[in-house]
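seq:
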Amino acid sequence: MPERFTSSRRTSGSSSYDTGQGGGQIEDSVQESANEELQPSRSNGVVIQANSGGISSVNLADTNSVLIAEISGGDRWKQANFDLETFEGFFGATAGDNSYFIKLRHVDSSGTITDEVLSQAVSVKSSNYRFELAAAAGIPFPSNGYPLGIFIKVGPDRFLYNLCLPDETFYQEVRNFLDSRWTGSNNRRMRIITNVATLKVNCPNLPLWINED
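struct:
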């Protein structure tokens, strides 16, 4: 029998939560197929078909939670900062505990899915809460807008993500969706929580959907 995970959401004044069709508690069967060369990972509501050449297809559940977040600038912007509620409530980290790691797979603009990368939860006394995004390594911070991180939660500590840069053809549809759902202060970086079903309707051209069965 496939292993089952239960995840729940929390609300906060610092992040805008759009529950869409899948609000409240999520409980989905987990299933993964992999050959002997790959270590299987357990994914909440997601079927991942893998082979020796890498990930061949992904079947996302409509209820999977999605974070869309503006990524702040700076020379080390690949160290992406988040507010405390997102750091703990979405990513599952605990402030002050730097022993926690999340597992990230990046989906690039062509739909190619990278190998899984561990990213350490880092929190410091200055109230910065961050994870390193390998996809941002070596890329200068854009001068024409904030990068947008789109993270799909596929397990308690596992995420598919796309680092959406302003020059991408699909950037504007994500930007418009984020702008329309954000209800926080104008002096804060925008972040919302939605789900796969709602994001697909509003952002149909994301490369996150290319590998779906």
